[in-house]
Amino acid sequence: MSHTADLEAAAHLFRALSSSSRLGLLRLLREGAATVTQLAERSGLSQPLVSQHLRTLREAGLVNFTRTGRETHYSLADPHVAQLLDTVLAHVVEDRRCPA
Q: Start and end of every HTH arsR-type domain (predicted)?
């Protein structure tokens, strides 16, 4: 992959992370796989909105899904997603403690 293609892929990933609702869903999925219904209940978002956000996260390669019967369970795509989320949140917390 070229340097430009790498940067475009990174930009696509950051666009997917640009929503506090999507970040919240990733944080919930960090605790374990969940269905749209479970995520809606835990996040306070409507089921259609959760589905829309999960589609964006899936297209960015941040979440996967598995179907079991009639249920679809979503989970983080790999450990790097949890590490990325942890790093971003740690950066935000650190910035609050040490204003420029």
A: 2-96
